[in-house]
Each structure stands twice: as C-alpha cells, then as structure tokens.
Amino acid sequence: MRLPILCGALALGASLLAWQGRYWGFRGEVDNDDAPFPPDGHEKTEFVFARLRYPSVRFAWGFRGNWATDYWKADRQFVQGVRRLTRIHVRSVEQVVDLDSDEIYNWPWIYAVEVGHWDLTDAQCKRLRDYLLRGGFLMVDDFHGTWEWETFMASLSRVFPDRPVVDIDSKDPIFHVLYDLDERFQVPGIQYWYTGRIYEKDGIEPRWRAVYDDKGRIMVAICHNMDLGDAWEWADHPRYPEHYASLAYRIGINYIIYAMTH
Amino acid sequence: MFELLFKYPPAAFSKGRLVWLSPWPLSWLVLALLVAGLLLAWRLRRPPAPHIQAGPRRRLILWALQAGFVALLLLMLWQPALSVATLKPQQNIIAVLLDDSRSMTAEEGGARRLEQARRLLNDGLLDALRARFQVRLYAFGHSASRIEKPDQATGAAQATHIGEALRTVLAEASAAPIGAVVLLSDGGDTRGGVPHAVVEELRARRLPVHAIGFGRERYQRDVELAAVEAPARVLPGSRVAALVRLRQTGYTRARVRLMVEEEGKTLAVREVTLSGPEQIETLLFQAGAAGPHRLRFAVQTLEGEENPRNNAVTRLVRVEDATPRVLYIEGEPRWEFKFIRRAIEEDKGLQLTTLLRTTENKLYRQGIADPKELEHGFPAEPEELFGFRGLIIGSVEANYFTPAQQQLIHDFADRRGGGVLFLGGRRALSETGWNRPPVADMLPVLLPQRTGTFHRDRVRVALTQAGRDSLITRLVEPPEANVERWRNLPALADYQEVGEPKPAALVLATLETPAGRTLPLLITQNYGRGRVAVFATGGSWRWQMLQPLSDMTHETFWQQLLRWLVSGASGEVSGSTPVPVLEDESQVLLRAEVRDKAFRPVADARVAARILGPAGLAETVELRPVADQPGVYEAEWSAPEAGGYSAEIHAWRGQQELGGDLILFRREDGVAEDFRMLQNRELLQALASATGGRYYRPQEARRLAEEITYSEAGLSVRELRDLWDMPVLFLMALGLRSAEWLLRRKWGAV
Predict the structure, then answer these.
(1) DSSP-derived secondary structure letter, A226
(2) Cα(B191)–Cα(A235) distance, rounded to whole angstroms?
(3) Which among A41, A130, A200, B713 could disulfide-bond with B207, CB atoms 3.0 to 4.6 Å apart, if both were Cys?
(4) Which residues contact A3 (CB under 8 A, 6 or more apart)?
C-alpha cells in the first residue's frame, strides 16, 4: 500500500514540476555567466529585446521551460551588438513578455526560442494573431527537424489558420535592409563543439521562412534548423566559430531593422 | 425746422465752407473777444450791488452770460457766410439709376419695391428734379441702359451690378455735365459691393451719389445659407471640410439639417441647432474620385420661411489626379517611423518616401521612384527636394544637414509652399540644435535653448478648442465625441518639451506630463507660402498597437495630418480663379503663378489657357504678366452662357514647357438675386457717404430735389450765403439776455 502511495506522490510531484517548468522556467541556468546586472539595465529606450515566455508541450525536455533557452546571456550579448552596429536606442537588458495580457502590445518586436516545443492556448493564439496584425513582429529560432516543425505549426496554424508559411525569397528586403544576406548558411548551436555536426535531429537544411500579411510584410520570421540564439550567446567563446556568430548577428539585426521599417 | 433756424438745408452746411466777409482780420476778432471778456470780468470783480449775495460762482455765471452775448454780437459783426457750390439751373444733368433686378420685384407692404420706386419718381421727384435740371433715367441690372419712363423697368434683370451702372454714368460724365447721381435700389449688389476704383473715380470727379433705399432690412422668419467655403482642389479620397455660414431670424433653437449632395446623391448630412443670427458650421464629406465635382450645399427649408430660395448654393471641387509625395527623413530606427509608414501605405492619395539612418554611415531608402533617387542622401539642390510636397524631419541631428540643406528646409516651406512636419525624438528639436536659424524661424514654437527636453514617459493627450475645429484632428463625428475620443486615446510612449507657441501658431492638441504640466503636442502655422507643424512625440505608435485592430485612429490621424501638410503645395504652374462659381456673372479672372523647378518666379514666360465650355466651345486665351507681381499672369474672359468650363493652363519659357494646371469654373444664372432679397442699407449708405451724397428713405426723398443742388460736379457756381442773419443767432442773443435777467431777478438784483 505504501509503494503505490509513494509512487503516486512522486508522480504528482513530477507532474507539478513539469507543469511549472513548462511555463515559468528557472533563472540562473547554466547558460549564464556571473555578470552583474548592467547599470543601465533600467534605461528607457526605444527598442527592447522582448523574449516571449510561452507554455511548452508536456513532457518536454527539462524543467525550466523551453522559452528560457539561452536566457539571458544570448539576449544581452546580442543587444550589445545591436547597440554597437546600428543607431537603434536599445536597452541593455531584455524584457520577458507573455501572451496572457495586453502588456504584449507595448513590445512591437518579440523573440521566441525553441518554438518546436511551444503549446499556445487558444486565447494566446488569438492575442498573438491580433498582436501581429496590429503591427507586431515575431522572430522564432532554434528548433530543428520534422517533429519540432510539426509541433511549432500545431500552434502557429491556430494563430493563422488561413495564412501559409513560405520560404523567404533572397530578394526580400529582410535580407537587405542593412546587410546583404544573399549568402546564408546553417548556424549551429553549441552542440557543434562536442558532435562536430552543424545540424540537429533531421534538420539538415536551414530554412528561412515567414508568414506575411496582406500587404506583403513579414509578421513571423521563422529560423528553422539553425540556432542563432546559441550563436549570440557563445559569440564571445573562442571555440565557437566567428563566421557563424557573425551571420547570426547580421540576421538578427536585419530582422530588427526590418521590423522597425515595415 | 432746420431751415427755419439756419436759413439753409443741412446739405448746404455739409457741402459749404465757412468764410468771413468783414474787411477786418480774424485776429482782431480774437483780440476783441479777449478785451470784451476782460472788461466784463473787471466789471464783475465785486458783487453787482451791495445787497446782493453774489459769491464767485454766481458772478462767474453772470460773466459767462454777458461774455456770450458780446461774443455773439462780435461774431455777427465779422459777417460769417457760407461758401457753397451749387449746380447751375437747367445746365446740369442728374443721372437717375433705377434698380431693375429681380430682387426689386419682392412685395412688401402691398407693393413691389419697383412699384414703390416708380411711384416715387412719377409722383413728384422726377418733376421736382426736372424743374431745376435735365434728367437722364437709367434702368440697371448687369449693366445700365437709358429708359424714357420709370415704367419701362420690369425687374427682369438677374443680377445687380451697381458698380457697372456707375461706370456707365462716369463714362457719360466725361462728355456731359452730370451733376449728381440718384440711385434707387435695394442695394443687393450681386458682386458683393461697388469696386473701390469706381468710388475713387466718383470722388475724384466730386460726383455725389444720393441713394434711396427700398425694401426691408431683415426677415421675420428665414434661414439663409449665406456662404460656403470649400477647397477648390483636394487629393483623391480626401475628407473635405466645408465651412458653412448660416444666417437666421425667427428660428433660434430650431434644429435644421445641413447637407451636401452631388447629382442627387447625398454625401453628408449634419443636424445643427440654430443658436444666433449667424453661425459657422463644418460639414465633412468624402471628396470621391479624381475629376470635377459639382456639389450642392443646402440647409433644410423650415416651415414659414419667407425666402426659401436662399437655402442652397453650388460649389465646385476638383479632385486632383495626383499623388503628392512626402519625404520623411529619420535619424534612427524607431517604431514611430514604421507605424507612420504603415498608416500612409493605407492612403492611396499620398506617397511616402523615407530616408532612414540605420547606422552612422548607412541610409535605408523606401518608396523611392527609381534606384538613383536620393542615393546621396538628403537633397542638396532645390530641384531635387522641391519635387516633394511635404517633408517630415524625425529624430535626426540638425548638424546632420549642411547649412545649405537647412536653408533648403526653410525654403521648402517659405518659397516652394510645401509643408514641413517636425517630430519629437531624442535627437529632435532642442536636443540637437534645431533651435537656431534658419529652421527656428519657421517653427510654430519658440524651442527651449537647452537639452533634456525629450522624455520617455507615457502621457495622455487632449484636444484644444482649435483642435476641436480642425480637420487634422477629427477622428470621429460629432465634434463632442471627437473630444472624448482624444481624451480616451492610449497614452503616448514619449513626449518632448517644445516651448511656447508663436503668436500666429495654432495649438491643436496638448499633453499632460506625469508632473501635471500641460504642454503643446500638435502645433501648426502657416509660414511663407507653406505651412509648418510640430508633433512633439515619437510615440503615437501606441495608438495603433494598444487599440483594437478595427480601430483606425492612428491611420486616420496620420493621413489627415499629412494631407493637410501637402494640401497647400502646388506645382510649378498653378492656376486659380477667385470665384469658381459665377452667379449671374460672365466675367471670370484666370490667374496663373509660374515658377521654375527651384520655385523662383518666372517673369518671362508665355502663358495661355485653353478654355473648353458648353456647346463645344473651345478658345485659347493668353494670360498677361501682372505688374509688381513677378511670376503672376492673369486674363479676364467672359463666359458666354451658363454651364461648366475648364481652362487648361500651360506655361512656356522659349521652347521649354514649364508645366500646366487646370482651372474649373461654372456660370450659373438666375440664382444671385435669391440671396440678396433684403435691402443692403450699409452698402447704400457707405456709397453715398464716400461720394458726398446722402442716403434717403423713400419718405424722405422729397427733400432730394433741393439738397441735390449743392454739388461741385457738372456745371456749378460758387455762392456766398450770409449766415449773420440766421434766426438761430438772434434767438441765442435773446436767450442769453433773458437768462441773465431771470437770474438777477431770482437773486434779488432787479
């Protein structure tokens, strides 16, 4: 009798932790170094790197929630590049936002990572659709292979049941708004160190895809089979190849400037 | 009575000049008055008799009465007289002008105005005039023509041109001794008044116009659509604001419908409450597709109106077949830039071209006409910049522009006639040196001479009274709901302090800072030939992101602001006519302003208008340069019949065509008199007064034959008429002596 109770308690605890992890995640994970909070972290600026916090599919990897992957080092390291390379007034610290309140409308650019694990509620899908049609911009990154694509699409197709996801033509302004990015290649994540592979799962071919609005403007920029977030995060590491980090920065900056001009 | 006391009629005094017939100089008179005054004062230094209690006040009164009497005698002794010019009997002509227009057929007091005038002439006035002068009788409407008898006037003329009638008399006065003009009219001049030149010529010839006014001066119950001001040309798809002036009597607090229609289709209706004798209302409507639009503005006819024919007018609005270009330079990527672009993309009537500094050395161009356009950045030559009609300066440093480019921005409004909008931002306005000439001169605000004016704090906004009336800020109807709409808009993301508005500026909207200060948000003003505005924020994008998708506030505001910005700017050749709808008129003035690509006036152009009209009319008219107005060309042309006309203006310099424009106008017959059914007494009085004549009511007109004699026009002679023997002087003398006697008696001296 004791064993089933113990097993039940363990199962319940594991479920609670999993539920908590699918949403809230933890601060201070291994990705981050011990850098102090930037002194200008509360500065009021024009642009803020807004990271989308979303619920993950059940039994997904880890407890912390996929939305927080690379959080916060990738974000802060990337915006340092945006500050240095453009005239955008950028805050040094990211902003975590979610789709559960209208606060999202104050952040016209959001970044979502590992969306191959996201699982949006109907209300969140509706708010995201509204947000995008009003002029918001979503960049998604770091998901790989067929299964994660299908998981991503399971939510996105509820956001836009009637809009196709299409490959972005190389002539599209998003690849030329600042840097000319005709020559693009797959940007691997940190797993490249120990596997030597630049792809993950069956995501061999990098795909730059998008959902467009009725005026031909990109609302959702999809970076599939690549890990720009890792490239930003590890750009300062000697073992991470510079050309991957460089392309990741240029893509990220182009996407931001596109979002601020279209 | 006046003549009994003063011997002569008032006209003699108003026309005459006082002279003294005594051989003694006037200085002696002054001396004599002084001596007499002193002697009388000496005599009264003590009380007149010991038993009389006469203090200084009583003695002063006695002195004044005695001195007045002596002064009167002395004045009479110096023989005052009136030097006055009078017309020689039977040698002068009196021109009698009888208004023959339709408004003179209005019936009042059981008789039509024209009948009243004819009766006045036939029942004595003409005979009285003929007893002293020759009389020429004219009937006039559009122009004046001679008639033999008053009965020949029928009230058939569709317009009243008093100026034209007077011109006819002036022309005849060159060859004939016309001594005065008698004008019988209701003053309802359908051109709105008598030209200044005509009045000046009458004054120069000293030819008085005596006016006899007919008709009542106000209705008991009437609503009149007195005027409509609508823009002559607008952009496709524009919302147009027409200012409608209503006059009413007897309908205060009544509700009436104002409407605008085109070919029977109602474009807009608005219900208003009549509140005073005159009020101005705004009527908003959509302009429609490119091309000419003949619009009928009307106010609902109310029960019991005395003149229902003055309730509608026609106006022409031309929707341009053009898409004005606006150049927007932004110094940093920011959300405001994106959302302005998106708002204007929805507007097919505007084209936005943008230059964005993405990095220190890189510009991102959008909306360019060709790959070469603006490839070197912001234009350095007027020819390149002046191709745009509007200019937006965003968050960009002043020193990013060369001094020559800053001058160009100034000249864009001042000389080109374009609109310039300055936005708030961390690199805008006072933050980076825009508070210095030449740009500071054109701004509608006195920018603070400090930095730290830009704040990223959320602020709420409100409309001012000027903003309530402005089309730029009209988001919803009616105006009261619009005020509420502005009050409930999402807070702006940021704001900038822009200082005090200049005297000629209009503050349309304000913001309230977190500290509770109210600051100007949207300020406009005209500058030179153009217009300038400041929108002291870079955070209106929240109006788009924080409101439902169906809400069009952000788009509407920006489209209206930019349409206002460009609507005053024309091309190099700009045609116009002051009165596009000729109401019972034929003369039209065609005017063209010709400038080169840098918008400098072209004084040596050849300008012609190709006029097309009803019944296949086609005619070419050459426009002539106007003296003292470089680059301005004009021509007068007469529209032969009612209908719509177009005049295509073209200008050339040598073989090079400088540009063209289109003027639309329309002649409408049988409408002008409907709006001038009341007597315009002000006009008649002003005309009579300016020319030395008098205004008479019909019952006073019998004096006219006598008073008209005093005129310097025609064949006149100057006469001297004694004044010393005026009965009034003797009465005064008697009065002074009697007053003294009565006072003395009262005080016990007699």
Answers:
(1) B
(2) 81
(3) B713
(4) none
CB-CB under 8 Å, A262 with B546? no
Chain B touched by A46 (CB under 8 Å): yes
Contact between B652 and B606 (Cβ < 8 Å): yes
Q: Distance (Å, rounded) from C-alpha A80 to C-alpha A170?
A: 27
Q: Is B559 helix (H, G, I), strand (E, B) or coil?
A: helix
The SS3 assignment for B608 reads strand
The amino acid present at B2, given as its one-letter code, is F
CA distances from B23 to B17, B28, B78, B713 (A): 18, 11, 8, 31
CB pair distance less than 8 Å for A105 and B545: yes
Measured from the Cβ of residue B103, the count of other Cβ atoms closer than 10 Å reads: 29
CA distance, residue A94 to nearest chain B CA (Å): 17
Q: d(Cα A99, Cα A86) in Å, to the nearest integer? A: 29
CA distance A71 to A52: 11
Can you tell me the distance from the alpha carbon of B688 to that of B596, in angstroms, rounded to the nearest whole number? 47
Closest-CA residue to B144 (of B105, B182, B199)? B182
Q: What is the mean pLDDT of chain B?
A: 91
A257 shares contact with chain B (CB less than 8 Å): yes
DSSP state of B713: S
Confidence at A28, pLDDT banded by 50, 70, 90: very low
Question: Which of B26-35, B86-95, B407-416, B692-701 is the least confident region?
Answer: B86-95
Within 8 A of B553 by CB-CB distance, chain A residues are none
All residues of chain B having their beta carbon less than 8 Å from the beta carbon of residue A255 are: none
Give me the interface pTM, i.e. the ipTM.
Answer: 0.90
Residue B53 CA to residue B734 CA, distance in Å, equals 26
Q: Write the CB contacts of B710 (distance below 8 Å, at least 6 apart in sequence).
A: B11, B12, B14, B15, B16, B84, B85, B86, B87
0.80 exceeded by the pTM? Answer: no
pLDDT for A24: 43
Question: pLDDT tens digit string along B69-85?
Answer: 999 999 999 999 988 88
The sheet carrying B632-638 orders its strands as B573-576, B587-594, B632-638, B617-625, B606-613, B643-653, B656-668, B581-583
A215 neighbourhood in chain B, CB within 8 Å = 345
